[in-house]
């Protein structure tokens, strides 16, 4: 049965990758620009549309200003100058490319007086052809009208994503149903046992082999064995975040929602790193408790924590400074912060904090604990106090540290944001601290804020101040781990606490942001790692565990595949996907680099290959541990 199950999972993974690939290949709407006009003066690129501006006003030159509506309080940028009408029937014409990722704001002014003629908002479609006519309502009337018409319908560039998602989900459902039919007898036995006794893990164990190597330990086994505790839902959640991170880092089909937000707000790409930090926190507590129970001294464990943190930081510096074929790398331009560096620093602080105040987990009164018990919180009051002090430090520095040339407490992007008044104030105190302590040349030189806000100063989203809030995020993950261990024999109690934490943190986020993207006290912001960003993503992480824990670990309705496999080898997959990102078969020359569809195929195949690599390594029992 184990061989059949393994083969079935491998086949399912291959079929899933093949289906997504074929769906992306066959889906319309992702190809390059159609031949809208053989004489068109503008060569359109990805996420652009053609706009023809017709000036039918006699004796009047026009200046067209433009920006995305997502650019908050931004200065409008000059898009084109349109000359006056030469004579009746021959309007002045300007052809320009406009962005299609977000809605657009267009404002037309008289060039001479810089006085507004008209203003409109419109969402252009990719590779569409549009005309904007500016004219008098009728002869002899001074009233001016601006009419926008569609000459050629745009393509639906999101269609490949939709089709790939639906086909993939359909295949997962079909494979799950097939597995259900193949194991119908086992399923019936499970039902009968569930009625007569507590939850059982026989079905999963029969398919996945030894718990000690495959980490299949179930809640019932926690009470019977002193073996290291490892939950499949934790590795599954880690794998989900990791695989999404790989897909995003490889380009995500060049779709804007698979890229990081320019400033406030969330995209899919903004979810993955904090979830990885959160689940790292849960793993810290579960693994540390297991190691201490086996008799390891705290001093020896402290040495392991320090060494692992040091390795993570060193590997991170190597990964974010790829200079493999470019000659010697100058220290003057080495980027110091990064993802693994942030993980290393966060891991060290949280692990040391837990080690210093580690207490044995009570075993004798486990069954007597009420669902309203707060033992998991009250037993950790010293850690909570220190974490709250750290958060107070972040708030104090963020809102009260004087920043030269910038308003105190500034949280904006700088650049053309806020009317262009704070051009070099990107990130406020967070950016200032990094530039002061690390130097401009040691920070990320292409921040996402440059996309919409045209910022010019270096800014690192993995900077020093943000590390404080990543520590808070990891400690909330520790809290999830404590819930799982303190109430290991109370499934209902665990689920109630996950739901309570998810709702509580969600309410905190709503209060901090005023349930808005830009108008709150502290907006959700990945670049700043704002406290509202931490509470929002932690809320969603608790709610995700609320679903995964009963489905994966309690009932065994899902093994966690295929995400479980990369979750078991997370460091190897992360470092490998960064180092080999530009090598075949993870990247190849595209036939049309302006096609979302081709990028989606390439990025999906590359991501699926890392899942396959993780699966093979798992079957070979090869795990890279630091």
TrEMBL record:
- Identify the Pfam families for this entry: HGSNAT_cat
One biological process term from GO is: lysosomal transport
Which cellular component terms (GO) are annotated to the entry?
lysosomal membrane
Query: Transmembrane stretches, by residue range?
Result: 161-182, 233-252, 272-293, 305-324, 344-362, 383-403, 464-487, 494-512, 532-551, 563-580, 600-618
- Record keywords: Phosphoprotein included? no
The alphabetized UniProt keywords are:
Membrane, Signal, Transmembrane, Transmembrane helix
Record keyword Kinase present: no
Q: Which domain of life is it from?
A: Eukaryota
Signal sequence extent: 1-32
Q: Domain Heparan-alpha-glucosaminide N-acetyltransferase catalytic, which positions?
A: 230-359
This one is known as Heparan-alpha-glucosaminide N-acetyltransferase
The opening ranks of the lineage are: Eukaryota, Metazoa, Chordata, Craniata, Vertebrata
Query: By which gene is this protein encoded?
Result: HGSNAT
